[in-house]
Amino acid sequence: MEIKAALTGNPNCGKTTLFNALTGSKQRVGNWPGVTVEKKEGTYKNDPSILIQDLPGIYSLSPYSLEEVVARSYLVQEHPDVILDVVDTSNLERNLYLTTQLLELDIPVVVGLNMMDIVEDKIDLKKLARWLNAPVVEVSALKKQGLESLMKQVKNESAKKEQKPFLFSRSIEDAIGSIQRLLPETKQTRWYALKVLENDSRILEELSLSKTDQQKITKLREAIENEFDDDIESILTAQRYDFIEKLIQDCVKRKRTKHAMSV
Ligand code: GDP
Ligand code: K
Ligand code: MG
């Protein structure tokens, strides 16, 4: 059986290096339909049943750039079997921001902690995996280290049917639940509900909700904005970073990084 694995990560996390190391010469390069964003896919050289789809480098799943729209449309519409989330471990906090969003898609996630050849921080992998509800594997795409264990996890996770998400505070979770029940049956997912709560214009257009439902949703959103005295996007962003901060405190013993990455 064929496994579809989507390769995601921030720009410069080492995605291309990893993609090349995993696929060797077995690559197909083109463009995403209608846009000039490069599309690359290939099969894992040690197991051709694993199809690796390289997605554009992105910082979040917001609709602010073409890359973000391409990546999230692929993930939501194609629903790959597993996401291989490449993380630049020398920049853990920022990279995990995308990870918290990927966990919301209900697609199993495997986290590849890349750049481990230059990172001296000690990371408790078991704890980190528990925080993220996803397997975490240390790799160096550059030195081709850890790639086999990484792909073993990718294969394992691809068989799973669900992914536990990162959770927001209680009132936000309640609102997500209420919105989910208002959505059309085929789109009653946590991800769609969260995007609706965030007032994501593309998603609202796609869903064309009734006036009554729109009003109900506005009320839910306003209640949260009043409670936290901020706009919804800032509230959700702050909660993601709170989570990441706590996770890092619990899982990472800081040392220095051997040398700064060239830019
Ligand atoms: P992308 O933008 O995510 O596709 O990142 P690239 O694959 O182009 O890598 C960005 C930079 O990071 C390049 O200079 C790579 O050589 C370097 N790089 C990628 N993986 C590793 C790694 O595991 N260790 C180190 N030290 N550098 C890496
Ligand atoms: K980065
Ligand atoms: Mg690249």
Can you offer a commentary on this structure?
This protein has 263 residues and is an alpha/beta fold. Helices cover 45% and strands 18% of the residues. The chain has a seven-stranded mixed sheet with strand order 2-3-4-1-5-6-8, with helices on both faces. A hairpin with a 6-residue loop joins strand 2 and strand 3 (38-44). The longest helix has 20 residues, at 232-251.
From the structure above, extract its key features.
263 residues, alpha/beta, globular, binds guanosine-5'-diphosphate, binds potassium ion, Ferrous iron transport protein B
Rg, alpha carbons: 19 Å
Structural class: alpha/beta
Shape: globular
Mean pLDDT figure: 94
Give the H and E element order.
EHEEEHEHEEHEHHHHHHE
Which ligands, by name, code or SMILES, are bound?
guanosine-5'-diphosphate, potassium ion, magnesium ion
Fraction of residues in β-strands:
15-25%
Tell me about the largest β-sheet: 7 strands, mixed
Number of strands: 9
Strand order in the largest sheet: 2-3-4-1-5-6-8
Number of helices: 10
Low-confidence stretches are none
Helix content: 40-55%
End-to-end separation in angstroms reads: 40 Å
Domain FeoB-type G: 2-160
Family: Belongs to the TRAFAC class TrmE-Era-EngA-EngB-Septin-like GTPase superfamily. FeoB GTPase (TC 9.A.8) family.
Function: Probable transporter of a GTP-driven Fe(2+) uptake system.
Protein name: Ferrous iron transport protein B
